[in-house]
Amino acid sequence: MREVERVTGRELLRLGSRIGLMAVELGEVRSVIALLYECVLLQEVLLAKAWATNPRPDVEFYRELAASSEWSEVEGRSFAVRVRKLGGFPPASSIELAARVGDAVYDACGGRCRIDLSKPELIVKLVASAEAAVVGVLLLKPRGDRFRLRSSRFKPFTHPASLTPEDARILVNLAAADGRILDPFCGTGSILAEAVARGLEAVGVDLDEEMARGAWRNLKHFSCDALCDVLVSDARMLPFRESCFDAVAADPPYGRLAPTHGLELNSVYERLISESARVLRDRGSLVFIKPEGSGVPRSLEKVGEGLKHLERYPVYVHSGLTRVICLVPRLRAAIRRTP
Ligand SMILES: C[S@@+](CC[C@H](N)C(=O)[O-])C[C@H]1O[C@@H](n2cnc3c(N)ncnc32)[C@H](O)[C@@H]1O
Question: Is the CB of residue 206 below 6 angstroms from any atom belonging to ligand 1?
Answer without folding.
Answer: yes
